[in-house]
Amino acid sequence: MLRSINRSNSLNNKLLKRLSFPTRTVTSRNTSTLIYVEGNKLGESNLNNLLKAGNKLNNLLRKNNDQSSAKDSISLLIVGPDSLNISQRVKENKLYNTFVKDVIVNQTEYPETLSEEISPVIKELLKNDNKIDNFVINNTTVGNDILSRVGGLIEIEPMSNILSIGETDNVTNFKRYTYSSKILKTIKNNQNKLLLSIRSSAFSDEPLDINQTKSIENAEQDIIVKDISKDDIVAKSKDDRINILFDKSKVLEGENSIDVTNAKIVVSGGRGLQKQENFDSLLEPLCKELKAGLGSTRAAVDNGYCDNSLQIGQTGKTVAPELYIAIGISGAIQHLAGMKDSKTVVSINNDPEAPINKNADYILEQDLFTAVPELTSKLAEKSL
């Protein structure tokens, strides 16, 4: 069971002191976490965020369950046609070699992961005989789909969009926003396994505790790479009652685009672009010049300007780039919930009363049909 408190920051400490929560009952064992990495979206900042979250989770669970002698371990699960090559890149990285015990690869035909296929594989990996206690994944549409399916398969309730992991009275807790990011929720979890998705860049400033990793005894050991593509684990996970048919042209579409959840710069368009032709002709060249990820609002999706996979917001993706450029976006609270952690926000909008301007660091009050082509042109000249 999960127990949670909806609270404002001012009441948090008082509430936590008044209420007692069941602690997680864990027998003496290692604290181990499996981190899922989409093979075609291995961004360094993204992987660092997941590693730091997994590292902190292991450390706090060992401490709060009085397992000072237990050993931590982090395993990566990389899925995709290029997963074996990516595992070698991880293995050659000195930082990753310090924290990662092994890399499990599942070579698939398609770069985009189907949750229906990978979830049963993860279920097999999380069985008790594999000695993996926790599962961590990115807070994306695909990530949360996998998370919920895995939770159903192993009968564990997952926690999504986690932005911090901490402790109160020697009990590990987890924090996430709710009600369009108006309220911060603190969750205490006493389940035998923990399943959670991590908010983009939430742990980017978190230090890595080298003293509590495999570096104590195993720093000189190379990361072990395990290819389970033709292993019994994959074979056991298959359900003969389900036959999934692929449309390869659709699956591979847009494979070279920059994933907004990993991008350092995100360009996002809203209703002000008026139609799909404007969305494509104005935003895509700008993204190309900036090497930026492309996003949108719910209004742009609903009006048919772009695919819903681009949507940023409460019911879309959560991003936290270094630079977020909002073009023709009014700033509904649902959209703000998905980009509120952006380091710098630029609004291009000829409406001085647009709500997003209150959240912007820089505002360009100009018609976007003039401003965006001019900006793209200047960037192109600079790159020559």
From TrEMBL:
It comes from the Eukaryota. One of its GO terms (molecular function) is electron transfer activity. Its cofactor is FAD. One of its GO terms (biological process) is fatty acid beta-oxidation using acyl-CoA dehydrogenase. GO terms for cellular component: mitochondrial matrix. SUPFAM superfamilies: Adenine nucleotide alpha hydrolases-like (SSF52402), DHS-like NAD/FAD-binding domain (SSF52467). FAD binds at residues 271, 297-298, 311-315, 328-335, 349. Gene3D superfamilies: HUPs, TPP-binding domain. Residues 259-340 form the Electron transfer flavoprotein alpha subunit C-terminal domain. Residues 72-221 form the Electron transfer flavoprotein alpha/beta-subunit N-terminal domain. Pfam families: ETF (PF01012), ETF_alpha (PF00766). InterPro entries: DHS-like_NAD/FAD-binding_dom (IPR029035), ETF_a/b_N (IPR014730), ETF_a/FixB (IPR001308), ETF_asu_C (IPR014731), Rossmann-like_a/b/a_fold (IPR014729). Binds 1 FAD per dimer. Heterodimer of an alpha and a beta subunit. The electron transfer flavoprotein serves as a specific electron acceptor for several dehydrogenases, including five acyl-CoA dehydrogenases, glutaryl-CoA and sarcosine dehydrogenase. It transfers the electrons to the main mitochondrial respiratory chain via ETF-ubiquinone oxidoreductase (ETF dehydrogenase). Belongs to the ETF alpha-subunit/FixB family. This is Probable electron transfer flavoprotein subunit alpha. It comes from Henningerozyma blattae (strain ATCC 34711 / CBS 6284 / DSM 70876 / NBRC 10599 / NRRL Y-10934 / UCD 77-7) (Yeast). The lineage of its organism: Eukaryota, Fungi, Dikarya, Ascomycota, Saccharomycotina. The gene is TBLA0C00470.
